[in-house]
Write a structure and sequence with these properties.
CATH class of the largest domain in chain B: Mainly Alpha
CATH topology of the largest domain in chain C: Rossmann fold
Subcellular location (chain C): Cell inner membrane
CATH topology of the largest domain in chain B: MetI-like fold
CATH architecture of the largest domain in chain C: 3-Layer(aba) Sandwich
Strand content of chain B: under 5%
Largest interface: A-B, 46 and 49 residues
CATH architecture of the largest domain in chain B: Orthogonal Bundle
Distance between the termini of chain C: 10 Å
Distance between the termini of chain B: 33 Å
CATH superfamily of the largest domain in chain C: P-loop containing nucleotide triphosphate hydrolases
Family (chain C): Belongs to the ABC transporter superfamily.
Number of helices of chain B: 15
Domain ABC transporter (chain C): 5-254
Order of helices and strands of chain B: HHHHHHHHHHHHHHH
Oligomer: heterotrimer
Shape of chain C: globular
Structural class of chain B: mainly alpha
Radius of gyration of chain B: 26 Å
GO molecular function, one term (chain C): ATP binding
Structural class of chain C: alpha/beta
CATH superfamily of the largest domain in chain B: MetI-like
Helix content of chain C: 25-40%
Largest sheet of chain B: none
Radius of gyration of chain C: 20 Å
Strand content of chain C: 15-25%
Helix content of chain B: over 70%
Shape of chain B: globular
Membrane topology (chain C): Peripheral membrane protein
Chain lengths: 306, 357, 285
């Protein structure tokens, strides 16, 4: 793109009087992006998450060693020793390589939870909010029951019932984390349910499913995205916690929580075994938190007004 | 003209109408709570039935003969239909009977009564830290929105949200116990102090004060300080963030301008006017955070070998002691519902608007 | 006439992402023992002018002025600590809606006594007596009950009476009333205005009455400033409003129905970009 056309695009995006709906939408996105970009912390978060994705995708090329190759003669070596940049674990495996491969596991968990819990919450919340009456009362009561459960303990019980393993851990997390999304989606639905434009669509003959899917869901999405991003760190921490308790990913799979668990025995003499994967969890959760925090500032309509 | 005609409301209206309204409210509250509890029991019951663990085998052992097995099955009522079993389960729970723990062979309710004070002690100290530090942090962060202090509070909170509690616990033990020796290690007391004072509340900090034994008190402090600081950090992160956002909302309202117009100092505007209003939603937040600590210190208790409810449930779970797990879960669920009710109640006391309607 | 306030070249600016918004642009006026009306549409800068006098424009807003003189003190250069003795004690403000401008969790009594005790070192008992007296003065029928009530238990008119009592109890010399009746029922509006008029008269105060309602202001005030786009475009005595010359004022007048000169059709106000470029009219007398 030439410089002048860049400039005219910028001007198009900065006008106070958009000429079309598309332009208004683009301006909104552009302004949001400008806000986000000026938020240094959010940018750091974004970079961390991109880093996670890249690491996960190219793990085999990035990892200096085979994450599963054991060498008992070279176990528990300190960082920097013998070519182990972050040291080796109790089976002589390269911690750095295991952390790099663990990125994929973390990303996998995050994606699976994202595709289940918020979607379930969205469906329950919008249906509940739109239909109202008995449906609403019943669905919200169920939501309350799940909210009243101790989250981690319920997840533990589920995993124990279903058997340890990464998919079951994800399922357990999803089962315990959908209620807040349902609440959120319901609240959003209630604010738009009685608006004139919904009435107009109803008068045109649209049925409840069409209205919910086509007109209410899109309105709930942005607040859900913020919430999911902010919850992502919690999801990662819960998954790691399950792994730590031996209920998530099973050995020898490279998973950060399980790595801390196995390093726990050696913490006083070989600090790096548990410390390094913990740092990885910390950095990635921090990334999601920083981005989520920035996104909320940008997308929160309340703040935009003031 | 001293008579004004625009006096339309505010008559002290204590009448029978209000009393029946109260009764109605209490009835609906009772209905909601019992429904929630019933749901809680149903889910735990179902989890117990879905478990791939045979409860009969767990009782009689693997080598039991068929007759013994069958007799045990009948005596446990497992031949009855599910709804009947559920009914029996509920009646038992309401009598405080969660069955026997296989691991300790005590009634589960006794086990819970024994371990719960440890959790309560830890969660309470942590919540105190969270409130005493988190609330002022949130208030001043909001008051100086955009300043370096505001940024600091935000980042400090986000760090708290991002740290795996079991990891930071390990690191904390490594540094402050292993390397520096500043704090006590895992457990609630050094081993040679254990069982030296009578158990009254089950909370060692209080029991040692009652017994007047300051050595044990300070030893207990040295043990609780690290886990409670770590849990307190989480609670602080949450509370300071919520306080900040509530405060920002209140500071944007008109009565704050009124207070400034009166010539109030900014401190008085913050605490006397804005914070009074923040207190109302904050009660719910603190109750929620307290409830989460009561239930969710599973990992912290594991790391610090803290013999509380979380650790009890986890060890029971890992050894397939389902009576104990379900009993613990139900107790925690009831606590959660109870705390929610309590915060609703406090809410109504603090907020004059809620009191009227 | 004694002059309370002299404002010279007052500007209020707000920085936004791409540019600077000037809410008030070089306004000069004075206030004596009189009722001065400031009229303008929303966004004309009338409310911001009131806030700027009290030093209540918060960042990102920025105030500049040659001077804001109050009985010999330059408010614009007064440190915040001293400014607090001006607020409430010397200059006070009644805002639009008592539903929002009264603190919902404090009783009426707490809020009124607090206003008094901020500027008078007296016991709570004396403050209470004083507050009840003040409630009586704003014609509240049952002061004892209202004293104990929470704002949500009051009607709009009562709330505004309470607000006026609260603002007048430290005996200020100037009262800014920012749309004090706009949120009230029409029947109550007039009563509040009468009350305000009586009290201001009795106490010999200066009143700045900010409103968008030109007929109301012209019937209630002694002198009028018409603001448009952050400037004063016209100033005149209220009884000479019909001789106003500025096209904006004329446009406003012509869009109002007049019982003495009935017209087939009211004209629609057309705004001219050039009004925004004009110099602000000096309203110091």
């Amino acid at each position: 793109m030439t410089q002048s056309s860049t400039r005219s695009l910028t001007r198009w995006l900065r006008t106070d009087e958009p000429a079309s709906r598309l332009q208004a939408r683009c301006i909104q996105v552009y302004n949001g992006w400008q806000d986000l970009r000026s938020n240094k912390l959010a940018m750091i978060g974004l970079i961390i998450i991109l880093g996670l994705v890249v690491t996960a995708l190219f793990a085999p090329f990035l990892a200096p060693q085979d994450p599963y190759a054991q060498d008992l003669s070279r176990r528990l070596l300190a960082p920097g020793q013998d070519g182990f940049l972050l040291g080796s674990d109790e089976l002589g495996r390269d911690i750095l390589s295991r952390i790099i491969h663990g990125a994929g596991t973390t990303l996998y968990i995050v994606l699976l939870v994202t595709l289940t819990a918020p979607v379930a919450g969205l469906i329950v919340g919008t249906v509940s909010g739109y239909l109202g009456g008995w449906t609403d009362a019943a669905l919200m009561r169920i939501t309350d029951i799940f909210l009243a459960f101790p989250k981690l303990i319920l997840a533990l019980a589920f995993v124990a019932a279903l058997g340890a393993g990464i998919e079951n851990a994800v399922l357990a997390i999803a089962l315990t984390s959908w209620p807040p999304y349902a609440r959120l989606a319901r609240a959003e639905t209630l604010t738009v349910r009685n608006m004139d434009y919904i009435a107009a669509i109803r008068l045109q003959g649209a049925g409840p499913i069409r209205i919910i899917v086509g007109h209410i869901w899109p309105l709930c999405v942005s607040s859900l995205i913020v919430r999911v991003t902010l919850d992502m760190a919690g999801i990662i921490l819960t998954a790691a916690g399950l792994g730590f308790l031996g209920l998530g990913a099973q050995p020898p799979m490279a998973e950060w929580g399980a790595m801390i668990s196995s390093g726990r025995k050696y913490i006083l003499d070989y600090w790096w075994v548990a410390t390094m994967p913990g740092l990885a969890i910390f950095i990635v959760s921090l990334g999601f938190n920083l981005l989520g925090d920035g996104l909320r500032d940008v997308l929160d309509p309340k703040k935009a007004q003031s | 003209m001293t008579e004004s005609t625009d006096v339309t409301s505010g008559q002290p209206a204590v009448s029978t109408g209000r009393l029946s309204l109260y009764l109605k409210k209490i009835a609906s509250l009772f209905f909601t709570v019992s429904l929630t509890l019933l749901g809680l029991l149903l889910v735990t019951f179902l989890i117990g039935r879905v478990m791939p663990i045979d409860p009969v085998l767990a009782v009689v052992g693997k080598r039991a003969s068929n007759e013994v097995y069958e007799a045990a099955r009948l005596s446990m009522g497992l031949d009855k239909p599910l709804y009947h079993q559920f009914f029996v389960y509920i009646t038992q729970v309401f009598q405080g009977d969660f069955g026997k723990s296989l691991l300790t062979s005590n009634p589960v309710i006794d086990d819970i009564a024994r371990v719960f004070p440890a959790t309560l002690e830890l969660a309470t100290v942590a919540t105190l830290i969270g409130v005493l530090v988190g609330v002022p942090m949130g208030v001043y962060a909001a008051a100086s929105q955009g300043s370096w202090f505001d940024q600091f509070v935000r980042v400090f909170g986000l760090f708290g949200y991002s740290m795996p509690v079991f990891w930071i616990g390990l690191i904390g033990l490594l540094i402050f116990y292993g390397m520096l020796g500043w704090v006590g290690g895992p457990g609630r007391l050094d081993i040679f102090y254990e069982d030296m004072i009578p158990t009254i509340t089950g909370m060692i900090l209080i029991d040692s004060l009652i017994a007047g034994d300051m050595t044990i008190f300070w030893n207990a402090v040295s043990h609780i300080i690290l886990p409670s600081l770590i849990l307190g950090y989480y609670s602080l992160a949450y509370i300071s963030r919520m306080t900040r956002s509530f405060m920002l909302e209140e500071l944007a309202s008109e009565y704050v301008i009124t207070a400034r117009v009166k010539g109030m100092s900014e401190q008085a505007v913050l605490w006397r006017h804005a914070f009074r209003n923040v207190l109302i939603p904050l009660i719910t937040v603190i109750a929620l955070s307290y409830a989460t600590l009561l239930e969710g210190s599973v990992l912290t208790e594991t790391i610090f070998a803290w013999p509380g409810l979380g650790q009890y449930i986890t060890t029971s779970l890992l050894s397939a002691d389902m009576n104990a797990v379900l009993g613990g879960t139900v107790v925690v669920g009831i606590l959660f519902v109870g705390l929610n009710l309590l915060s609703d109640f406090l809410y109504k006391i603090v907020d004059p608007r809620a009191r009227q309607s | 006439m004694k002059r309370f306030l002299t404002v010279e070249d007052l500007w209020v600016r707000f920085k936004t992402r791409y540019d600077m918004v000037e809410a008030v642009r070089g306004v000069s006026f004075s206030l004596g023992r009189e009722r001065l009306g400031i009229v303008g549409e929303s966004g004309s800068g009338k409310s911001m002018t009131g806030r700027a006098l009290l030093g209540l424009v918060r960042p990102p807003g920025d105030v500049s002025a040659t001077r804001i003189d109050f009985l010999g003190q330059d408010l614009h250069r007064l440190p915040e600590k001293k400014m607090r003795h001006i607020r409430g004690k010397e200059i006070s403000m009644v805002m639009q809606d008592p539903k929002y401008s009264l603190n919902p969790v404090l009783t009426v009594g707490e809020q009124i006594t607090e206003a008094y005790r901020l500027h008078n070192r007296v016991s709570q008992k004396i403050a209470r007596a004083k507050a009840l007296e003040m409630l009586e003065e704003v014609q509240i029928r049952d002061p004892e009950r209202v004293y104990k009530a929470y704002p949500s238990e009051l009607s709009g008119g009562m709330g505004q009476r309470v607000m006026i009592a609260m603002m007048l109890i430290p005996d200020p010399k100037v009262l800014i009333a920012d749309e004090p009746t706009s949120a009230l029922d029409v029947t109550v509006q007039l009563k509040i205005l009468q009350l305000l008029d009586q009290l201001v008269e009795k106490r010999g105060m200066g009143l700045i009455f900010i409103s968008h309602d030109l007929p109301l202001v012209s019937s209630f005030c002694d002198r009028i400033l018409i603001m448009y786009g952050g400037r004063i475009v016209e100033t005149c005595r209220a009884d000479q409003l019909d001789q106003a010359t500025h096209p904006y004022t004329r446009g406003l007048l012509q869009s109002l129905p007049d019982i003495r000169h009935p017209r087939e059709r009211l004209s629609v106000l057309t705004r001219d970009e050039s009004w925004k470029q004009e110099e602000s009219v000096n309203a110091i007398i």
